[in-house]
Structures are given as structure tokens and as C-alpha cells.
Amino acid sequence: MKILRIGIAPYEEMKKRTMAIARGDLKPGNNEPKLWFTSIESLARVLSDKNRTLLNLIIEQQPKSIAELEVLSGRAKSNLSRTLKNMERFGLVELLKGEGGTICPRVPYEQIQLALPFGRHQQARSVALR
Fold this sequence. Notes:
By secondary structure, the chain is an alpha/beta fold. It has a single domain, classed as Arc Repressor Mutant, subunit A (Orthogonal Bundle). Helix content is 50%, strand content 17%. The protein has six helices and five strands, in the order βαβααααβββα. The protein has a three-stranded parallel sheet. Strands 3-4 form a two-stranded antiparallel sheet. A hairpin with a 5-residue loop joins strand 3 and strand 4.
């Protein structure tokens, strides 16, 4: 099962983490988040109920084009295209070239896990990144 792990951290912490990885000071483990958001609110905008329903629809129905997904979802093409492009930016959806120049949406993950440390666990992670 392919799992996408998501983390929540302030921008400055994400920046420090990225720089530590680039310098070779930090090697992310296999179970660490691959996708980061600065807040629960920003995550919620991308993974709203409506968007999670869309992801499930893509997984279950495997539409061959955005036009087919438009019919299946009942969403307007302009709204659907904008939503899919945004989710593609985060790696939640892949938009593949299909037959006849169509764009075929695909969800590369079967599960999403959220890493949200609290209390001393959050502070320990921050100290390790400095």
C-alpha cells in the first residue's frame, strides 16, 4: 500500500528542515512526512470533504479523462481543472496524458497519514533541526 505522510510545521521550521537535508545534516526516515503544510487550515483547504470525495471517485471509477470525471463528479470543468491542478501541485493527483490527447487523473496513494506532534515531541523535533 502506497502511503503519503503529511506533516504540519511552521514555515521557518520547514525551511530549517529543508536546509538541514540539503547540507546533509539530516536524512529523513522512510516514515517521516514527505508533504508539509504550515497549518491545519491550509491542509483542510486542499483536503476538504469535497476534495477527498473527488479523490475517492478517481480511485474507484478510474476516469479516462477530465471530461469523464466532470460527468461523474457533477463539478464544472473549470472548477474541476483548477482543483486537480492544485492537488497535482501537492502530489495528491497525477494528471497523465491519455489517448487522443486527453488528460487522465490518477491518485498515486491509497492512504494519507498525518504526523502532528504535540508538547515535548514537537519541541524535540524543532531542536533537532537547528
